Amino acid sequence: MTLPPPDSYACYKERIRCLCALHDCSITSGIRTKKRSGLVGSTSSLSKHKGEMGGWADDLVADDMSDGKRKKLVRDAKTLGLYVEDEGDHVHVQGLPPGPLK
Ligand SMILES: [Zn+2]
User: Which residue from 10, 51, 3, 5 is spatially nearest to 29, judged by alpha carbons?
Assistant: First the structure.
C-alpha cells in the first residue's frame, strides 16, 4: 500500500520522523536560504528546501548508507507518499511534487 502525498506540513514532518526512526537516519539539510542553497550547489529556483517554497524537503543520511539500505529507504519513502531521489551520499526526500507550487 502506498499512502497519498502528505496533506499538511505536520504530516510531512511526521513521515520524515518515521523514516528517520525506521532507518537510523539523520537530517543533514532541511530548510535552506537562497545563499546556503547556492553554497551547496543547488541550481533549482524551485527547490523545496528553500524557505519560500515552504521547506518541504529534507536530506537524509542513514548510519548505514550501503546500496541495499539506501534502496530500502527509497522504497519506504515512496510508500509514505513522498518524492525521493537517491543522491548517493544522501537521500533527498520531499513532500511536494517537483516543479512550481500550484
Ligand atoms: Zn535535497
Answer: 51
